[in-house]
Amino acid sequence: MTLEARVVRTLGxxxxxxxxxxxxxxxxxVLGPNGSGKTTLFHCLAGLLPIDAGxxxxxxxxxxxxxxxxxVRPEQRPVAVVFQDYLLFxxxxxxxxxxxxxxxRKVPKAVARDRAAAWLARVGLADHAxxxxxALSGGQAQxxxxxxxxxxxxxxxxxxxxxxxxxxxxxxxxxRDLRRHLETxxxxxxxxxxxxxxxxxxxxxxxxFERGHVVQTGxxxxxxxxxxxRYIADLVGxxxxxxxxxxxxxxxxxxxxxxxxxxxSGDVFAVIQPHAVAIYSAPPDGSPRNVWxxxxxxxxxxxxxxxxxLSGDIPLVAEITPAALDALxxxxxxxxxxxxxxxxxxxxxx
Length: 350
What we know:
2 domains, alpha+beta, CATH 2.40.50.100, five-stranded antiparallel β-sheet, Rossmann fold, about 350 residues, six-stranded mixed β-sheet
C-alpha cells in the first residue's frame, strides 16, 4: 500500500502546498506549529476538503484529482480518522460506537456488532463493550476510537493528536498500547502531533510543516542532528545558528562569531547542544575559543535541570544543574559569559 499526495489548497490568506508520500506498514508523524497546515492536510486526505490542485492517490487509485475531475466522497474512501477528542457518540455503547462505521458502510447490523466485539477484544476492552463513553477512562476511549477506525479495514489511517486528551499519568502507558496496536495495521499511518516524544515512540519518520510547506523530512534522529529551521531546533531542544563560514570561523546572521573545529565555508548551520553551554559570572580564565557576553533572558527551573535562555550576538539556551544555578544566583537581566568548546559544535551546509 502506498500514499502519494500533492496537496494544494487555499483557505483565505493561507495556502497549503505540500508533497507527501508513505507506504504500508509505515507511520509518518506530521509535526509543525499551529497554523502550519497539518489539519488542512488531514481534511483533504479524508475528503472533508477538496484540493485546488495536485493529486491524492492511494494504492494507485486517485481519490482527488482536479485535473481529471475525480473526487471520491469521504464515506467512499478507504480512509479512517481518529480525532483528537475521539468523537465517540455519548448515547451509544462502546460496541455500538465501533459498529457505527461498519453500519454506515451498509454492513448488516448483526455482522457489524460481531466485528465490533472482536475489535474491542483485540484492544483489550471486551469487558467494556456495553459501557458508554462517560464510563470509560481517557485511554479506554482512545482505544474504542481506534477500534472504530480499524474495524472498517481502511488502507489509510489518520490519527489527529490521539494522545493530546490524556493526562500525563496515563499518556506513557497509552502511547505504548497505541504503538502495539498500530503495528498490527499494515496500511498507511499518518500521525499529527506537537510532541516529539510521541513522534519518537510511534513514528518511523517525520514530516515537519511550516507556513503551509514541508520544510524537512527524515527520521527524528536525522532531524535532531540536522535541524533546518528555528522551529525544528526548538522542537528537538537544540540551539541552531546560521551564518557564513570561512576557514573554521562562522559569522552568524545575528552578528556573532563562532569558532568551529570543522573547516567550514559558505552558508552553514551550526548546532550546539544546551548541555554543552557553560555559563560564567565573569570572563573565564584561559583562552577558550568561544566566549560570548550575554544577558540572562529567562530561567526555567525543572525537576533535575535548569534551562537558561541567553540573549546577545549569539542567542543560546544553556542547560545547567540546579546546583549550578544556585551557585551563580542567576536572575533575568544578569550579565554573564557563555562558553562552548569548538569540538562541541556541529556544522552542515545551509
